[in-house]
Each structure stands twice: as C-alpha cells, then as structure tokens.
Amino acid sequence: MAASTDVPARVPARPAPRGTRAVPRMRHRLGVMAIIASATAMGLAGVFGRMSTPPGAVIGEALTLGRMTVGALGMVLVLALGRRLGAVRRTRLSWSVVLGGVFLGLSLATYLSATVLTDLARAVALHYLGPVVATVLARVLLKERASPTELVSVAVSFTGMVLAAGLIDAGPAIGNEQQLQGDVLAAVSGVLYGAALLCYRYRSDMPADVRSFWNFAFGSLGAAGMVAVTRPDLSGMTTANWMWAVAFFLVCGLLALGLLVLAGKHLRAVELSALSYWEVVVAMLLGAAVFGEGISPLAAAGAVLIIVGAAIAVGASHRRVARLPRAPATAR
C-alpha cells in the first residue's frame, strides 16, 4: 500500500517532462457547478432547521450530529452500490482528512447554536468569516497567490454578504451575556469553517466519494462531542419535526456537504470563498418566500454584489486555467 501524504491540490505550472505521467489539471467547471449546488442546498438549512426545531428548543448540535451521521451512512450506501467499499480500506488517512471533518462538524454545530443566542444577521456574518479565513490561510500555508481580480471578487462578495445579512441597516442590539455567548460561538464557527475549507485543498489523490465518507464520519465525531457537552432536549419533537429533520439530514447533509468536498478538490480557496457566499442569497430569498421576511434595498444590493463577486471569481479563474499549457494525457 502506497503511503498518502498531505499534499495540496495544485494546478501544474508547466507540462510534465517526457517519460513521466503528468498530473491532471483540476476540473474547474465541475468544481464551480459543485460549489454552487452545495451552497444552494446549504441555503435550505435555515428553513429545514426551523421546521425541525420545536418552539423554544435549542437542538442545533443534535441536528448537526444527525446531518453528519446520515451523510456517512449515505456514503456507505453509495460506495457499496458502486462496489467501492474496498477503496475506503485501501486509502490511508491523514491529518487533513481527519481535521477537515472534525472542523466542519464543530463549525456547523456552533453556528446553529449561535443563531438562537444572538441576532441571526450577526451570526451569519461571523460564520461567513470562514471563506476569508480560508483564503488567508491558503496564501500563508499553501502559497496560493490570488490575483488582484480574485481578491476583488472576495471583497465584493464579502461586502455583499454584510449587506444581505442586514448588518448595515440593522438596529442596535441589546448586549447581554447570552448574546455575547452567541457572538463568540458564531465567530468560532467561522474560523472552524475556514479551517475545514483549507483542509479540502489537501489530498487531491483521495477519491471524492471516499473523502466525503471520512468527512461525514469525523464530522459526526465532532458534533457528538458538542452533543455530549450541551445535552439538547429532543423530547418536544413531533412527527412533523422529525420529517423535516430527515429532509434536513439528506439535503443539507449528504447532498450539500458531499458536493462541498468535491468542489474543494477542483477549486482554489479564493474561488471557494467567493462562490460559497451564494448560500446567503439563497437563504435570504427563502426567508422572504417561506417566512415572509422583508428584503430591504440594501439587502437586495448585497445579493447583487454576491452574484457579481462570484462572476468575477469564475471569470478570473477561467482565464488563469485557460492560459496553462495542457499536460500530456499519457507518458511516451
């Protein structure tokens, strides 16, 4: 069995020499489609999460544990149907695989808890510090150089997120111990989310389905740790709550997070950062359509900025990939 190391996914700067097998280029279009689909499914989390939660309850950690556990079981089924369970055994684990799952599980658990302790707009903004953190860490640790255009795309998307979340026109919040706890949890969730996105940039040798299984498995361990500490009360959940929870587990868990892992294999951190903010637009539109939440002119402008930032990131990356020389498919 060959050892697997934590090597970041990189686009080759030049073709491989004759006599050696070239490293294949990242499948950029697949990565873009995966992150957009993932962010769309993640945007449904607010609706499914609210419908799953009994009035007055705080069960974010339990919902995250179910989300990760169902995702892991779903990936086992997918691997079994594809007769690829042996690939799980043959693939050696490494620190980035373990930490990527644990970071994501802890991030989602702390974020859902923060949304009931502090203002929702504040929680969303602090959680979405994650993509910015991932971009900075990728520059420091992976030496990924973002072009001025790509940096502008992240800045535009982040500005749009702040506007869409309602931070600019939101009224002053009353500070108290509960709100401070929620703010801290939301900030922690953002840092952990950024760390998880960075981890997905390593181990491009691992197949996406195998990586998704381990991501869910270790994410379940992280969420289980939160459940052990908080001990959420599920006694008030009705049949309708459980039905919504199952939909939450499948759509916002198996589908959304599986696609996030796939996107991380084929996109650079700066692209993941800009495109992941699409989730904010989806959540805002669903809030208006399902719960009748108003969309202010500033929030609408923010949604437009998020779309513009994503378009800038995709365009810049497409031009960068197109300029790279094509590596030979086979050795001569």
Fold blueprint:
Elements: H1 28-43, H2 45-52, H3 60-81, H4 85-90, H5 95-114, H6 120-127, H7 130-141, H8 148-164, H9 177-199, H10 208-230, H11 239-266, H12 269-276, H13 278-291, H14 297-323
Please explain how this structure is put together.
This protein is mainly α and 332 residues long. The chain has one domain. The chain contains 14 helices and no strands. The chain has helices at 28-43, 45-52, 60-81, 85-90, 95-114, 120-127, 130-141, 148-164, 177-199, 208-230, 239-266, 269-276, 278-291, 297-323. Helix 1 runs antiparallel to helix 11 (239-266) and helix 3 runs antiparallel to helix 10 (208-230). The longest helix has 28 residues, at 239-266. The chain starts with 27 loop residues before the first helix and ends in a 9-residue tail after the last helix.
Quick overview of this protein structure:
The chain is mainly alpha-helical and about 325 residues long.
